[in-house]
Inverse folding.
């Protein structure tokens, strides 16, 4: 029993967020009389929020190092505009244009990272300047007008689905993927448990372990089943899944991830322990730039146009997602999964309130209050555990 | 002989677990300069905080009489109203405000609720004349040197109608000329009837200006010497400061010392902002299996020396050579230093040593993730094994290595820092005040670990303000004062008196008269 208590105590914040997400989802499911979790709407939810979730992944890393990036919305718009010029005006193939766009994003990140890490200008100021600079550049390259339409293949990134074999009423491949994923998860969990036992660490008691596995398998399969009832798995979901897996791995398991947390936790101590603080900070911003570019591409593909007003307020949504997901404003604390959950809380609320017919005015206000509540809950928890 | 302006009787102040002051008595006569002497941590600053109301009445025992009146200060404001003003070692001026604004900060010259700038200006001008500072009242503080800032602080004290001026290490950051000016000013103020208490480590200065000296050791008053009546020498003061009996607080060790493995030559470092040398042409060496001590008072430049060697973490315009096993090292960053087998256990473990929001295992491995990772991927299971090994070896008292280091006691935190650096497998280990603020039991454990490391053939450099610790642990001791090495003493020749003499070696020793 102590083991379970421990697991819960050390992960209160993470579990708390999941519980909050489930509750908010159930609330809007009831209020919207079941529309929220209809297959069509679930697919919509994923596609609508994908570009914010991509930003949230990069943003939580920036916030963990103790910085902030206000420019991501403008950078996304700028890269979207440049990609449109390359694809629409110059007829470049979409993959080449995408690769170039990601490089441009990384270069923008390097520019900002240079000022923050090496010149030691506060990131708030560097990225505020970036926000203005790249919004301006967006309008300049677009001449104040939208560019459209994108090639069909490019649009598929945001609006496409995994194809199915045969012509079924239900998307069979999705169901199969769900089952495969469950098997992989179960195998992985069992392997972890064995290694931990080999090292002689505490593990969950068997019945609890089985219960946990059952819950995980159930969530995966219900989710894929819902998607299968509409058009199956959207491409964008695969991309998101891959990003979450890769970045979670980087942050949790690699030396680079360790150094990012160490810098945010205590930069002086990290430096005196041999962490190359400037270099790591620089690369975190390069990474943010590349992810902002990806987000801009996804948004442009979904809208099927590059517009001067693209990406406005994206940075605020991404920052809110990271903080709702448990990141600490003073750095050193936060997780990729947390940021994703935070982003989903915002996304479900947006979608749910729209379904209820609430105006944008009320939506803004309520989202603001939720952000404040989530963070104060966090601070309250910390003070309690600190005492 | 005039009457006492201040009398502190039977002052006892306890912090959780520590008795900082025990039955301390201090008597300052009207119109005298009274010096307060003692080693670092003897309780001088605590006593002055009791006097000035930083520790309010009720948080200590004993009584304070100022001009024959019993005082029960609740905060600094009340003590200042009585004319007691303290000037701290770290100056409390706001750099972006002018001299005049700083002098009257919190005490603004008002007329009808608005600041009367003319009045402020005139008064500031008069005050600056008194302290002999030829600057315009509107000059910003940031454009003044430390010496002039010190004078502004005194002008500020004068603006509060000061009768008893307390100066905590007033000359620690000053150069020779500024120090002289300051001391002359204090003598001048004395002629005007303002009494002062000076806390200083520079015994030559005290010998120059003080009328009487009270010596504090381990939170107790040892003696008060009258500089006028007796012939008080610096040696006499030192004897009072250090004269404590050494009990067996250090584990036994038979040193097994080999060849020189580490050497620093011609090491000079400039202050990061000001144009002065913090470390001035220092040479020293460490041999295999040797524990070398660096003794020095606060501000002598010990930490700056260590940090500048450890990957140029302090200062600028660093020049000099570092040799290890006869080969010159090129060390530009901390990771260069670590790669070359140098480790540095920082003085302030909370600010520079640990990541308090992270757990023990992550702190243990931070400086050396390579052995537990492959292709940049950390094996967390191996990491726990490593941390567990150190937990047992170092006897870190914690339920689990997943505990946040911020929740540990000082001694256990220090053991985690030591684990981190031992895991980095250094050949040279620099320890900066490794036992500060931890209890006697944990100290003994840390000494034992140090002895083990020396026995393994590593070279250790121990920086400490506690002379008994230096004498109890080190095979050879360097003394530092004002950025220079002022002596090198073998263990068998060392005594506290001798070290203190070298440590307080100033740049001039003649006595002035007021």
């Amino acid at each position: 029993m102590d083991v379970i208590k421990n697991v819960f105590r050390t992960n209160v914040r993470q579990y708390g967020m999941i519980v909050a997400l489930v509750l908010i989802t159930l609330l809007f499911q009831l209020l919207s009389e079941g529309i929220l979790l209809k297959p069509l709407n679930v697919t919509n939810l994923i596609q609508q929020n994908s570009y914010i979730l991509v930003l949230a992944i990069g943003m939580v890393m920036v916030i963990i190092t103790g910085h902030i990036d206000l420019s991501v919305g403008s950078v996304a718009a700028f890269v979207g505009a440049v990609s449109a010029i390359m694809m629409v005006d110059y007829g470049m193939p979409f993959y080449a244009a995408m690769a170039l766009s990601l490089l441009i994003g990384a270069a923008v990140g390097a520019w900002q990272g240079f000022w923050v890490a090496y010149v030691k200008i506060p990131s708030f100021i560097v990225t505020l300047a970036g926000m203005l600079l790249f919004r301006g550049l967006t309008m300049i390259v677009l001449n104040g007008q939208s560019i459209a339409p994108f090639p069909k293949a490019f649009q598929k990134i945001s609006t496409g689905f995994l194809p199915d074999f045969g012509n079924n009423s239900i998307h069979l491949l999705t169901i199969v993927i769900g089952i495969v994923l469950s098997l992989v998860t179960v195998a992985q969990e069992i392997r972890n448990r064995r290694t931990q036992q080999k090292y002689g660490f505490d593990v969950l008691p068997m019945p609890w372990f089985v219960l946990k596995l059952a819950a995980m398998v159930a969530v995966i399969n219900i989710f894929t089943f819902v998607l299968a009832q509409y058009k199956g798995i959207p491409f964008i979901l695969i991309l998101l899944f891959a990003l979450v897996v890769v970045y979670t791995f980087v942050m949790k398991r690699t030396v680079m991830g360790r150094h990012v947390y160490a810098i945010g936790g205590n930069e002086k101590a990290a430096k005196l322990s041999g962490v190359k603080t400037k270099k790591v900070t620089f690369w975190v911003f390069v990474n943010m730039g590349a992810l902002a570019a990806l987000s801009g591409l996804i948004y442009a593909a979904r809208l099927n146009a590059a517009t001067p007003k693209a990406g406005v307020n994206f940075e605020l949504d991404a920052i809110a997602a990271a903080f709702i997901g448990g990141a600490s404003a003073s750095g050193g604390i936060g997780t990729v999964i947390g940021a994703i959950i935070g982003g989903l809380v915002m996304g479900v609320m947006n979608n749910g309130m729209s379904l209820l017919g609430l105006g944008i005015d009320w939506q803004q206000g309520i989202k603001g209050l939720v952000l404040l509540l989530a963070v104060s809950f966090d601070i309250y928890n910390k003070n309690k555990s600190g005492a | 002989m005039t009457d006492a302006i201040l009398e502190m009787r039977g002052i006892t102040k306890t912090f959780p677990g520590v008795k900082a002051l025990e039955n301390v008595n201090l008597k300052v006569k009207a119109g005298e300069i009274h010096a307060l002497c003692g080693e670092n941590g003897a309780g001088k600053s605590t006593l002055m905080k009791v006097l000035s109301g930083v520790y309010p009445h009720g948080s200590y025992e004993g009584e304070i009489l100022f001009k024959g009146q019993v005082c029960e200060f609740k905060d600094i404001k009340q003590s200042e109203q009585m004319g007691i003003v303290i000037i701290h070692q770290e100056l409390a001026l706001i750099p972006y405000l002018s001299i005049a604004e700083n002098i009257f900060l919190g005490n603004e010259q008002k007329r009808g609720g608005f600041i009367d700038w003319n009045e402020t200006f005139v008064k500031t001008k008069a005050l600056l004349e008194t302290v002999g500072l030829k600057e315009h009242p509107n000059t910003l503080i940031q454009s003044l040197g430390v010496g002039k800032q010190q004078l502004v602080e005194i002008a500020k004290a004068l603006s509060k109608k000061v009768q008893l001026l307390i100066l905590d290490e007033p000359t620690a950051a000053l150069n020779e000329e500024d120090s002289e000016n300051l001391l002359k000013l204090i003598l001048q103020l004395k002629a005007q009837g303002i009494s002062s208490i000076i806390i200083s480590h520079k015994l030559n200065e005290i010998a120059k200006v003080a009328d009487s000296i009270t010596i504090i050791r381990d939170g107790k008053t040892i003696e008060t010497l009258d500089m006028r009546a007796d012939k008080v020498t610096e040696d006499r003061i030192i004897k009072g400061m250090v004269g404590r009996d050494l009990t067996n607080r250090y584990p036994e060790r038979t040193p097994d010392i080999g060849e020189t493995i580490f050497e620093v030559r011609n090491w000079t470092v400039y202050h990061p902002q000001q144009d002065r040398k913090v470390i001035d042409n220092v040479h020293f060496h460490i041999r295999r299996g040797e524990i070398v001590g660096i003794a020095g008072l606060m501000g002598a430049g010990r930490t700056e020396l260590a940090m500048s060697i450890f990957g140029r973490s302090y200062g600028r315009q660093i020049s000099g050579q570092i040799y290890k096993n006869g080969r010159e090292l090129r060390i530009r960053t901390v990771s260069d230093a670590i790669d070359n087998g140098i480790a540095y256990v920082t003085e302030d473990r909370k600010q520079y040593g640990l990541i308090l929001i992270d757990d023990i295992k992550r702190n243990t491995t931070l400086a050396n993730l390579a052995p537990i990772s492959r292709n940049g991927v950390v094996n967390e299971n191996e990491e726990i094994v490593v941390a567990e090994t150190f937990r047992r070896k170092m006897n870190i008292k914690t339920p689990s290595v997943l505990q946040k280091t911020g929740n540990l006691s000082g001694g256990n935190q220090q053991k985690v820092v030591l684990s981190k650096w031992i895991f980095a497998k250094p050949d040279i280990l620099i320890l900066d005040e490794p036992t500060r603020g931890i209890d006697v039991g944990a100290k003994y454990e840390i000494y034992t670990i140090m002895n083990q490391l020396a026995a393994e053939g590593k070279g250790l450099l121990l920086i400490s303000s506690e002379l008994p610790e230096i004498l109890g642990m080190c095979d050879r001791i360097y003394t530092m004062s004002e950025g220079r090495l002022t002596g090198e003493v073998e263990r068998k020749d060392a005594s506290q008196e001798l070290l203190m003499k070298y440590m307080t070696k100033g740049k001039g020793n003649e006595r002035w008269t007021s």
Notes: Chain A touches chain B at residues 10, 195-196, 199, 201, 253-258, 261-262, 265-266, 268-276, 332-333, 386 (CB under 8 Å).
